[in-house]
Design goal:
This protein is mostly beta strands. The protein is about 5% helix and about 45% strand.
Length: about 80
């Protein structure tokens, strides 16, 4: 499981910039292959639940919706040990 989130307000400083606050819960199946020197990983998180909040920027623009949030992601990683 993976939970990604962005708060409505910043902890320190101004919160006036654009953001899409809320949380998204993903189920994240993946594969890892490793030998002595190399590791390769591949995962595809799929969104299960979205909890999108209203930001300060949304109040100014009526056309802003919760679109633009991915239904799935693709992560590929490679690590080499020296």
């Amino acid at each position: 499981m993976r939970i990604d989130g962005i708060p409505v307000n910043d902890l320190i400083g101004e919160s006036g910039g654009f953001r899409r606050p809320g949380t998204i819960v993903y189920r994240e199946p993946g594969i890892i292959w490793s030998n002595i020197m190399n590791t390769v990983n591949f995962s595809v998180p799929v969104a299960l639940h979205r909890n999108v909040k209203t930001s300060n920027y949304d109040a100014e623009l009526d056309w802003v919706t919760s679109g633009g949030l991915a239904d799935y992601l693709i992560f590929i990683g490679y690590t080499r040990r020296f």
